[in-house]
Amino acid sequence: MSKKYLIVGGSSGIGLALTNRLATEGNKVIVLSRNKNRLELNDNIEHHKFDVLDPSENLPAFEQEINGLAYCPGSINLKPFKSFKEQEYIDDFRINALGAVKVINQYLTNLKKSEKSSIVLFSTVAVQTGMPYHASIAMAKGAVEGLTRSLAAEFAPKIRVNAIASSLTNTPLAVKLLSSDEKKEASAKRHPLNSIGKAEDIANAAFYLLSEESGWVTGQILHVDGGMSSIRLL
Questions:
Q1: What is the pTM assigned to this prediction?
Q2: The CATH number of the domain where 111 resides is what?
């Protein structure tokens, strides 16, 4: 049976891969993003312009029920601690954490109209595993993990809330970190599976968490990171 999903940031990277997977399975997908990018609109996909960093923009209102919501916007801002400006911490927090709060607050009524619904947020392996130069993003995504568990408790049993903590993934957001074969090889070697994650790897996990197949899963941080957070090879 076709369901309706809302994907914020669904026109690029992981969000795009998730949008395409949902639509291919016959579901209706509403995408909110700054622009259409590589998004191909069809009978199952509609697009609405929204920039999470623009306080003057209002989220569009919908009357119908929403079966699942994924908040995909994120940032990769890596530098030594002393190099960060206060505004950078604020911007990273706004796009990663406060943006999710704003979206969930706007569409909570739509999610409650569904008999069972699901929210998927995104974190990073750098929250559980301390890494240099990740102070700003780890702080922002740490807030996302706390939000995930708190909302899972508050919204149960009707709405499930989970997050995915990924490692570096080959998406447009990470293009500067994977801009050469040498960088790609070095990044792959940091993972026990000796490879870099693809957008589809993360999107498949998000698809699972949105689907009824994960109906007994809530309040979880699912690590999809090539083994980085839990395995040390000898």
A1: 0.94
A2: 3.40.50.720
